[in-house]
Amino acid sequence: MTSKEKYLSKLANRESVAVTEARERIKNREWLQESQNLALRILMRLDKLGMKQKDLAKELGVSAQYVNKLLKGKEKFSWDNIIAIQRILNMPILSGYQPTLVLMSKPYSGKGEIVSPANPVNSSEKEVDVKMGKLVSLFGNDKQYETYQPALSQ
User: Fold this and answer.
1) Residue 147's pLDDT is what?
2) What is the spatial distance between Cα 23 and Cα 2, in angstroms, rounded to a whole number?
3) Residue 97: its pLDDT value, please?
4) pLDDT of residue 52
5) Which residues form the HTH cro/C1-type domain (predicted)?
6) What is the pLDDT of residues 109-123, one digit of tens each?
7) For the chain, which terminal residue's Cβ has fewer other Cβ atoms within 10 angstroms, N or C?
8) CA–CA distance, 43 with 36 (Å, rounded to integer)
């Protein structure tokens, strides 16, 4: 075997970096998708609160670079980070989270017509503007907003 053949056989046994990275992406596709979805929700919440990533990093006690990496959706969220983020941003991430203010779904009557939620959203997924006394946003796993339909007469 010549030195060229030895070199080529050595290279043939190695997997390229691109192939290795592609295998990792395929293996981790599910959690990457979830991380990206969570990162988008967090970015939207930061925007709504007028906070910057740097502010979140300071509250979490981590570097701004680490928060940036998390919010790009390329890093796994640790349980500690998820719990801290939902507390800091007062947003539901884990299903057992209860925000400080809970709004219960109730039938609404306007102009003589009784209506009820067609697709009720969990009360823990609603955010209320206390000063204005109104519902300002809804969070849900199905990414749908609560809509209303005429209530069934009882």
Assistant:
1) 47
2) 33
3) 53
4) 95
5) 48-96
6) 445 444 445 545 555
7) C
8) 10
DSSP E strands: which ranges in the chain?
Answer: 108-110, 113-117, 126-129, 134-138, 148-150
Q: CB of 83 within 8 A of CB of 94?
A: yes
Q: What is the C-alpha to C-alpha distance for residues 56 and 39, in angstroms, rounded to an integer?
A: 13
C-alpha to C-alpha distance for 140 and 34, rounded to whole angstroms = 14
- Domains along the chain? 3-89 (1.10.260.40), 108-150 (no CATH)
- Distance CA(6)–CA(9), nearest Å, equals 5
What pLDDT score was predicted for residue 30? 83
For residue 43, what is the enclosing H or E element?
helix 29-49
92 C-beta neighbours (distance < 10 Å), count:
20
| Residues whose CB is less than 8 angstroms from the CB of residue 69 and which lie 6 or more positions away in sequence, other chains included | 75
Burial of 69 (0-12, 13-18, 19+ CB in 10 A): middle
